[in-house]
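Input set for joint prediction.
Command: fold jointly, output tokens.
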Amino acid sequence: MTFVNMSFIQVENVYKYFEDKCVSNNISLEIPEGEIFGLLGPNGAGKTTLIRMLATITTPDKGKIFLNNQPLNSNHSSMIGYMPEERGLYKKMSVVDQLLFFAELKGYTRTQAKQEVKFWMNKLDIVSWADKKMEELSKGMAQKIQFISTILHKPKFLILDEPFSGFDPVNADMVKDLIISLKNEGTTILFSTHRMDNIEELCDQLAIIHNGVKILDGKINTIRQQFFNHEYILEFMNNDLDNIETSNNQFNIIQAQINSFGRKEITFKLKENQSPQELYKQYSQSNTIIGFREKMPTIHQIFVNQVTSNS
Amino acid sequence: MKNIWVILKREYLTRIKNKTFIIMTFLAPILITAFYGGAIYVATKGAEDNTQKTIYLSSNNALVQKIDRKFNNFEFINEPKISSGGTAVTDKINSDIEKGKVNGWLIISDQDLSNLDSTELIVKEAFSVNQKNTINEFLKSQITRQILKAKGISQSMLDSAQVKGGISMIEENESGEMENSSSELKSGVGFIMAFIIYFFIFMYGSMVMRSAMEEKTNRIVEVIISSVKPFQLMFGKILGVALVGLTQFFAWILLSLVFVLGIGKYLSSGIQMPQNMPQSGMNNQQAIKTLVDQNDLIGHLQSLPYAQIIVVFLLFFLGGYLLYSSLFAAIGAAVNQETDVQQFMLPVSLPLVFGLIIAQSVVFQAPNGHLAKVFSMIPLTSPVVMAVRVPFGISWSEIFTSAAILYATFFIMVWISAKIYRIGILMYGKKPTWKDFAKWIRQS
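tokens >
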């Protein structure tokens, strides 16, 4: 059976064992070209193991990985950029030498490497650091250099393990913008993090891994739809509406609170046979409603829910 | 191939540019010269015990009583006579030794003078091996003389029968010519080479180890081995450091030559001094002797098998370094911190130290004996042992067999080390054990 898959990265039934422990248990993933894919999982779930296989550092014990429909092998390393969670650079080397070294390792010639290094140092405004040794730089500066060294060779596939850790908000935003611009240029990105807000903001798709098993994956919006609990929030103009909560009516109230603008917010959970229109109609007759929206579960909630229920 | 080159280049350039490296390159020849100069000075001058030693001599034998009582810085005097006799004599002698009035008590058995086995020298502070041997030789020759004299041989006959000097060895080379042979010179040349090899292996082998460890503890390695194979990383590193070592080595040779030539020039300008100056020290006889010795030395130097020496030195210098540095690289990749290194370094470096001991003992005594030949074939000891043996002349077939074994072992070792390296470099946390090493080798 042969067919051309549109995904840039395909992981097919991959197993990896450490001694007798199965750290990747029948994992399959597909990452479409030019998308950002979020990889989630609690500590020790097997994310790093999977990432190392994708970065051609290790190979699966069973199963296959394809990059652009070719079996992944070490020849692809020039197409891959990898920033591990635990970072480090040569302390005694200068910034420029360091960057040139990584560019050459990824197959650039010396001249090409020099051009790229110059370009990125200008772009990130760090030309004045060029001859500084790594040990003279602050942690945030070193992180910047590390990030440049990862993307210097224009990888088609970028693996970022906790890319924002160690950055202050300003630099984190800068890296975020860079990631988005790389995505817009067609780079496929795998992004592993514990920060759910980053996932919601940046990713198109995600997968949750727990104890070496993939317990959930799909497009972010689809997943959120899937976990949608038919909950709706009504926001009222005035906040002295105790009667709404106390009056016995057909709609099930699960939460009532005053929001930060001093408005009353009530969350309703609809039954199968109830529609949001009916809810709105019921309350709009005698109250001024200033907001009405569905309450989508956050990725954070889905993650906690999935991980605890699968433990 | 390109990857190995990139790794090699980084390893070489960062080390060559390092300030410590530059300082050491210039300082080491001075330090080494000072160190060996000092060591040689102490060995020849300082260590000798020149204090006068007085020793009580106990023997009822008339022949023993006639021996010379003074030689070098030893003096033998009769044990004190005390009329009361019995244990009083022993007590007096013991207290004299205790108080330091005399240095020892020599008791020569009266039974059989032809054997000194039951002769005892009682001392408070032990004499050196040299001093003991000197006394031994002195007693033997003196007693022999007295026995001969007792048999009626005159003093003059004895003197004329005294043989002096030492033999010289003449070697017949392959073309049938006779050559002066100096075992001392050969041992010296061999030992210097062995020591350089030993030193190089340890110094640069541990540099490879630290480099692997640095990449691991700084977590650089994960990024690097996503771009190059662990084997390429290890091999590039080993070759890069080898080049650093060679650079430093040749710089040292060059600097040493400059020093030697500089000192030589200084000395030759000293010789221009007027001949009649009494302080010039050397009398005619000494000067002639030095000249003869120098001619001798030149003759000896010419007799060394240079082709073999150069081939062996280069082959085993490099082979030994490659073999050991691949082992050191695996250790560096496996451990997590400097303190864990010792446990693995010791067993790995022990064979090399052992090789040097073998070189010192067995090879000096029998450079072409069985033991020497066996250790020339064991790859972990051969670099050092072969270097010591080569000035004495070894067959080319033996050289190449030994080198073939060494290089074959290196290729096997590099393959095994690469496996340990590959897994070890990503293992953080617990301190590895030998069992883990075995498991990693099987695993990959």
